[in-house]
Design a protein that fits this description.
115 residues
Length: 115
């Protein structure tokens, strides 16, 4: 398992995701979106697993401040320009990904690795 957690250090759900994996002794790499964005390749990989539309935090302040709720936009372009509009955390394990705090999905992944 080579886990990546995309989120921010200030995000409570990202902190909960880190705690989830740390408590189970599973190594992960945290990519702080406030410091370093998601690469185009990583974004496409995650979008292939969950869909590009599921990645944008349409209820978030940043999304609203940018005025995206009132216009058509290309999600990939907007995310690459401003990764802080993503729903966090995004947990990625190879070609699998889960968006938001999703311990049920993560537990299933761990079970698959053990079985």
């Amino acid at each position: 398992m080579h886990l990546q957690i995309f989120g921010t250090r200030k995000c409570q759900d990202t902190k909960k995701a880190e705690r989830f994996f740390r408590e189970r002794g599973i190594a992960y790499q945290l990519i702080d979106l406030a410091e370093k964005g998601i690469s185009a390749g990583e974004l496409r990989s995650v979008a292939a697993a969950v869909g590009m539309g599921a990645l944008v935090d349409t209820g978030g302040r940043r999304f609203k401040d940018k005025g995206l709720a009132y216009q058509d936009y290309d999600a990939e372009t907007e995310i690459l320009a401003d990764p802080l509009i993503l729903v966090t955390p995004i947990v990625r394990d190879g070609r699998r990904a889960a968006v938001g705090y999703d311990p049920a999905a993560w537990t299933a992944w761990i079970g698959e690795k053990k079985g």
